[in-house]
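> call design_seq(struct)
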């Protein structure tokens, strides 16, 4: 009986040990399967793809400029003075009158109480158009008071006042583009032909005169004009929208699209450091680091990194050549 007990006890122990090993083996297999499944999931997980908009880098021209406003004036004006002091007896012209040199402008009576003198006639010193007539009949004037102002037949000019901080950029013959509210959509051309040698101490501005072409005689003296003075012009440079460039940690770069070398059907981006030049109206000159016609990311680039996969949603037309 005792031997049977021990025999059955040994069998029971063997059965229990087998069960324990079976449970352990099954658990290990499950853990191994779960681990393998996890690794497989991680390996097959899709790489993130970023939606972006792109634009080709353009080659063309960029201009730096200063925008000023001023009045259109006659190229040459001359004031008319009387040779004698006295009362204005008669005016022979009005504003807008066309006169020739030597034509009478005003008659002045230099008589005094108890004394009668011959009338003095003030004549036009040049041929042109009367643009101002401060004199009025009955006024008492002296030889230092102008009776009228005559504009010669020369070209029209625009009188501009340049702020002191821009004086260093001014130079004779700089090209200008002129626009007027009176002629919307039209652009007139001109250039700087006169620079004042002094600066007004009150306004801290310097007077600059711009001659302007007047095709069709559309421009009139006294009109208000906007002048865009081109202070710097660069041709055949690479230019991009300034919004495409990213500045971080002291460097400036853009992302250029390329094909994945392992899968040509996948588009990736490469980080490209650039050296910027002048920036005008949201357009940046790229001095080095980028070639014309390379496609760069203009929208959606903030989350990108070297080698990121992208999906180009929209390709924007390149900047104009001018």
């Amino acid at each position: 009986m005792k031997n049977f007990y021990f025999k059955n006890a040994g069998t029971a122990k063997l059965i229990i040990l087998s069960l324990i090993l079976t449970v352990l083996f099954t658990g290990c297999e499950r853990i191994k399967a779960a681990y393998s499944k996890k690794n497989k999931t991680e390996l097959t997980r899709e790489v993130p793809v970023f939606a972006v908009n792109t634009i080709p880098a353009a080659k063309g021209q960029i201009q730096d400029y200063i925008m000023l406003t001023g009045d259109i004036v006659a190229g040459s004006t001359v004031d008319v003075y009387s040779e004698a002091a006295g009362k204005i007896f008669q005016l022979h012209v009005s504003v807008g009158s066309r006169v020739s040199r030597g034509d009478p402008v005003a008659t002045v009576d230099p008589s005094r109480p108890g004394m009668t003198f011959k009338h003095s006639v003030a004549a036009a010193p040049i041929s042109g158009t009367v643009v101002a007539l401060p004199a009025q009949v009955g006024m008492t004037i002296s030889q230092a008071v102008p009776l009228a102002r005559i504009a010669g037949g020369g070209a029209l000019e625009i009188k501009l006042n340049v702020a002191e901080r821009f004086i260093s950029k001014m130079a004779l013959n700089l090209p200008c583009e002129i626009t007027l509210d009176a002629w919307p959509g039209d652009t007139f051309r001109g250039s700087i032909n006169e620079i004042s040698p002094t600066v007004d101490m009150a306004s801290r501005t310097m007077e600059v005169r711009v001659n302007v072409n007047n095709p069709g005689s559309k421009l009139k003296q006294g009109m208000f004009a906007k002048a865009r003075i081109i202070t710097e012009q660069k041709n055949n440079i690479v230019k991009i929208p300034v919004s495409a460039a990213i500045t971080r940690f002291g460097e400036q770069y853009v992302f250029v699209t390329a094909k994945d070398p392992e899968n040509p059907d996948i588009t990736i981006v490469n980080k490209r450091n650039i050296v910027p030049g002048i920036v005008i109206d949201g357009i940046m000159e790229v001095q080095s680091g980028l070639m014309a016609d390379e496609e760069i990311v203009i929208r959606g680039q903030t989350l990108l990194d070297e080698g990121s996969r992208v999906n180009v949603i929209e390709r924007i037309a390149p900047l104009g050549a001018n």
